[in-house]
Amino acid sequence: MTGIATKVQHSTELRKPLTALINQRCKPVGGIFRLDYDSAVVLTDDFKKHEAGGVPRGGFLLAVAGDSTEAGFILEDQEIILLRVRGTAPLPNESELIQTRLAVVRDAGASGVDFDDVTDVLTRNELQQSAFDCEVLGTFYTETDARDARVEYGADIDNVVVSARYQVFLPSTDVLSWLASYPAAADERDSLAIGKVRFAATRRKALIAGTDQADVRIDVSDFVGRKTAVFGMTRTGKSNTIKTLATAVHRYASEHGRSIGQLIFDPQGEYANVNRQDGTGLRLLGDDDRTVRIYKVEPDPTDSREKTLRLNFYDRDVLEAAWSLVSDATAQVNTNYAKSFRSADLTEPDRQDFGAHNRWGWSLVAFYGLLAKCGFTAARFTPLKIALPEEKAAAFLKAHPSEIVSASPGKYTVNSPSGALSLANWVGKHPTEFPKWHDEKSRFPDIYGVYEYTGVTSAIRTIRSFHGPESTGDVAELLWLDMVAGRLAIVDLSSGNELVAKVMSERIVTHLLNKAAERFREDAEPLEMQIVVEEAHNLFERGGREVADDPWVRLSKEAAKYKMGLIYATQEVTSVDKRILSNTSNWLVAHLNSDHETRELSHYYDFKVWAPSIIRAEDVGFVRMKTYSGKYIVPAQIAKFDHSMVNEARKAAGLDAFTLAERDD
Q1: Which of 607, 611, 634, 638 is nearest to 622 (CA)?
Q2: Cα(423)–Cα(364) distance, integer angstroms
Q3: Percentage of residues in the chain with pLDDT exceeding 90?
Q4: What 3-state DSSP class applies to 356?
Q5: Cα separations (Å) of 85 from 24, 245, 388, 590, 610?
Q6: DSSP 138-154
Q7: Which of 250, 384, 451, 500 is most buried, by CB atoms within 10 Å?
């Protein structure tokens, strides 16, 4: 009866969640012989390591107190200490072992025999002993002994008992996947298999043991409305990771019936276009502009998804945007003339303030004339009405017939950019005849003053590719409407220089933040949206401007209350403002080639442990990942972005699957 009772008891114990976990083919590798609250030293030997399939640096180990029985390993308490291997540790008799090993190597070499031939069995067993230095990550436990008890996790241990009671196991493939994916998403639909567990660049032991097939699953909701950093050198898989995340969020929104707009700033054009090698691309998430919109300098008129990125700099409705781009383009010119130029304000004053409105009109003459001088053409031009004494106008018209047209006594209209240029030059060269145009209240001289300075005019010419004579509307406002509609919008900045990309992206982000702030002040429901920034080191300014002037820092500070998420990818941790880093919830770190970068990274979570591996391993897609809900860093090989991911998102959105034969070229 006693034997039957014991079997029944063991059967009951084996059904408890953590006991069941250890008995899922986890392999014993040794025991703890020294334990404190932060670290543990695990005694092992070469045979156990071989049988377990190898123990990599950074690998997880499970320490449990209990007994081995015929039925399986029975835990004393429903508690497992999670360890991470940091390296090796010396044994108490290490010096003796070294002396013995030295003698074995010397004697075998001198006699020309194998090592085993100069040692006995007991000595060989002694020489194979070693120890792991492990970090204590935390404790898995259940609050009750019930079989359906929920597994909890604490990031420490709350007691230290006699360490000889702890046996240590290497997780099996299934248990490793459970560890790497803990905690599981509350909704199964939100669980994304982002890749496989990977501890080392060398994967031979993992391939043999099968642990290279342990899935890493993330909760997609962790990446919605939060900051995510993707770090790594060029060609280490940052873009692949971002495509995977963007597609997952797109699918998540469809499955939950939520409107989540995504805006991707694309400096190289790799998101805006289909990959010619494998036919994948984010644009395939939609078939028309109801779902996906791609803003380009040269859009394809036959594809409804492609829209123009250009502004019509002569369009009065986007005057503020045009002036912002022009003045920012000259930011690197530090002459007094350039500074005075940028200080000009082209905001239209109250129309009832006739003096101020007249001066504003004269400033526009100078501004539109400057655009014409810099080669900005016009398909159409809204007539600009200005105040101009008739005798002065007559003298100008005599030299430049038809450049202006009389509208009423003392009022004339400028009907073309060339007319604005001619009039600005005339007034600029006859200052004594136009004293009001040149007085201290007028901004005309500040703008006209740069006409002959090539530093300013050359800088303005660099943004000419973003001028569209046929364009209508403000791209920033169109993108806001895309976010309202929950679309995926990609801004292709590959046709401009870095300055233009920076100015354009900052203006768009500022507009989105301002619109989101308006909704917040009106107590309206926030719009969920994600902003994705590639090559973020070209856009972020570490320790630069104040929060109010830096849209990226504003985004990190204010976005949570607006439900705006940010995914930024860069090669340089040090290029990112610390205020952004401190507010980052998700981290995916691939290869970095500088200890300067890894030292900065080491200030966050326990990335310091992974710094040597991050510098050494250059494998594409090999990342160390910490997510918002994840309890510890998990090393993973990110899955390659493929058609199945796109088709799963299309299915969730109610679209038909596409095949390679149907892909865009």
Answers
A1: 638
A2: 11
A3: 60
A4: helix
A5: 21, 29, 81, 20, 11
A6: EEEEESS--TTPPEEEE
A7: 250
